[in-house]
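Notes from hallway chat w/ T.B., transcribed later so I don't forget. T.B. wanted the structure written out for a chain they're using in a teaching module, and asked if we could keep both sequence and structure tokens in one place. Agreed to drop them here.
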Amino acid sequence: MSEVLPNVSCVTLRGRAVLISGPPGSGKSSLALALMDRGGELVGDDGVTLSQVGELVVATPPPHTEGLIEIRNVGLLEVPTGRAPVAIVINLTSDAERLPLGHGYRLLLGHQIPQVDLYPETPFLALRAEAALEMHGLD
């Protein structure tokens, strides 16, 4: 079973995929770039292919934009891509709670994946996303 999930970005960090969701213009590509700057590898920008492999949901590059990431006001950048099991969904929203008591879940291919809502307008967004992966992401 597989599906292409549009309007999301995805980066691998230490063998785990961080799926980034949010409304258009919320900073999904910018967060992906910041995580890549911290050692991550692009899986997909503006879309990702999800497949079930055993008990895992694995993110792979989408065929139509594989290896491309948008740098707003600059253009498209070609980069190497990776693939990994989805460990967490980072949802960019201005409604994110300041001090949540845990995390929510996103259902992907019938599997519950931890989801953390983050406020997008912060210079420390990549640090928060990385901390969310370590605190709440699947191993």
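Follow-up for T.B.: The chain is about 15% helix and 45% strand. Might be a good example for the class.
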